[in-house]
Design brief:
alpha/beta, Udp-n-acetylmuramoylalanyl-d-glutamate--2,6- Diaminopimelate Ligase, Chain: A, domain 1, Protein-Tyrosine Phosphatase, Chain A, seven-stranded mixed β-sheet, 21% strand, globular, disordered N terminus, disordered C terminus
Length: 475
């Protein structure tokens, strides 16, 4: 961390920026920001947020005990918080800041910190799928010649993005941040905090449709990534998106299409199946190692964004050639049989893409598709799973394994579609695993696709251990 950001704020500065009321030592220095008391250390600011399992206000004492120098808490909890922790805060020389909305305070502080670095080129990436892969591709390209920062993993939410931004220092030349959402209004909040100079919407799909209610609502929410444009910024949207015209309309900035037809300089030389693609960018040939059309589109989007950001043709080619698959995203595990481990997340679009990839391969052995529940689909869950089953039932698979209560309509639809191979439906993981183990043989291809909550990576781990197969990830 540079000298400028060794201390992010004083408690008094944080209180003023967050619009709070300060109790305690306003000179207390803040060196990091956390929302988990277990991550607190000397000099941390602990922001007490309500969570799915616990309320951060119940952990203020633990954060102070771990060395936190400041705590942000809600004003309507002030009496209880002061009664429980004011003495400890005073003893530790820490401050308490009370605000109407702790999340809004966190975001205000992140925005203020980011604003200290006006020379940072800010790239924002959103979409129903492909955000993380695209982010990693852009980082691989721009990181070849610039000092970059990006949010780790998929910390892209109304909490994760602000927390990631506190790591920005004056040494960084470009920020590459993915921006996700799972509620109405969230993308607008993220855009206000980050204010991207270059932004891309990878696609408008059906992820989180159960929360927002329709693809129209998803498109409107995604478009908010452009909401802070004032005419100087650049945006990109997928050339074949159903909402392409809507996403481009009325934006104060230069919005262009990306894709195989629109992105000048790109040529697809050869589809190599599981080995990826041979591509050419401005005449420089290279191999992009991730398989499938969806990953190809991520690479094209990354090339378009990076080129607009000033990357050389050599950096684009070398960067994309260096990309490695992330956990649960198009990972290829090879041994006596082959596993495509693509189970970090799932929605109707990504499931169709994964099945399409496996169907397109010239595979000498059998194909087994293990398909887990797609979560967060709300009222569309039954119809989406039925469509998944119909697609799987008409696929090139020799066996289908459906896992999770939500996949029962998929199981029924696959049989109605005339699938003639083995079809299994299970809600118990051990029974699922026994069925898959009993089927998989040397030379087979197994696809693992499901939402993160289904943890289908356990199948790959158990197959490797149970069959003694020397499964190894791609180097």
């Amino acid at each position: 961390m540079s000298e400028r950001t060794a201390s992010l704020f004083s408690a008094a500065e944080a209180s003023a920026l967050a619009g709070g009321e300060l109790v305690g030592d306003g000179a207390a220095e803040i060196g990091s920001v956390v929302v988990d008391s277990r991550a607190a250390r000397r000099g941390s600011l602990f922001v007490a947020l309500p969570g799915e399992r616990t309320d951060g206000h119940a952990h203020i004492e633990a954060a102070l005990g771990a060395g936190a120098s400041c705590v942000i808490a809600r004003s309507d909890r002030r009496a209880a918080v002061e009664a429980a922790t004011a003495a400890l805060a005073a003893e530790r020389g820490a401050a308490l800041v009370f605000v109407p909305d702790a999340l809004a305070a966190l975001q205000a502080l992140a925005r203020a910190h980011r604003a200290r670095f006006p020379r940072l080129l800010r790239i924002g990436i959103t979409g129903s799928s492909g955000k993380t892969t695209t982010k990693e591709c852009v980082a691989a390209i721009l990181g070849r010649s610039r000092s970059i920062i990006s949010n780790p993993g998929n910390l892209n939410s109304d909490i994760g993005l602000p927390l990631s931004m506190f790591a920005i220092t004056d040494s960084h030349e470009a920020g590459i941040f993915e921006m996700g959402m799972n509620r109405a209004g969230e993308m607008g909040e993220l855009a206000a905090v980050y204010e991207p100079d270059v932004a891309i919407i990878m696609n408008v799909g059906t992820a989180h449709i159960g929360i927002l209610g329709s693809r129209d609502a998803i498109a409107k929410e995604k478009k908010a990534i452009f909401s802070r444009f004032d005419g100087r910024q650049a945006g990109f949207v997928w050339e074949d998106d159903d909402y392409e015209a809507f996403l481009r309309s009325g934006v104060r900035g230069d919005v262009s299409d990306f894709g195989p037809r629109s992105t000048v300089g790109l040529r697809v030389l050869r589809n190599l199946g599981l080995e990826g693609y041979d591509l050419s960018w401005d005449g420089i040939a290279f191999r992009f190692p991730l398989p499938g059309r969806h990953n190809l589109l991520d690479a094209i989007g990354a090339a378009a964004v990076s080129s607009r950001a000033g990357a050389s043709a050599a950096d684009v080619a070398d960067g994309l050639a260096s990309v490695k698959p992330l956990f649960g995203r198009s990972e290829i595990l090879r041994g006596s049989f082959t596993i495509l481990r693509d189970c970090y997340n799932a929605n109707p679009d990504s499931v169709e893409a994964a099945i399409g990839l496996c169907d397109s391969l010239e595979w000498p052995g059998r194909r087994a598709y293990v398909l887990g529940s797609m979560l967060e689909l709300g009222n569309d869950s039954e119809s989406a799973h039925r469509a998944m089953g119909e697609t799987a039932g008409k696929s090139e698979a020799d066996a289908l394994f459906f896992f999770g209560a939500e996949t029962r309509p998929a199981f029924d639809a696959a049989r109605l579609a005339g699938f003639r191979g083995l079809v299994v439906f299970e809600t118990d993981f051990d029974r699922l695993l026994a069925a898959v183990r009993g089927y998989i043989a040397p030379g087979d291809l197994a696809l693992l696709k499901g939402s993160r909550g289904m943890a289908l990576e356990r199948v790959a781990d158990a197959l490797a251990a149970g069959l003694g197969a020397p499964i190894k990830g791609e180097a």
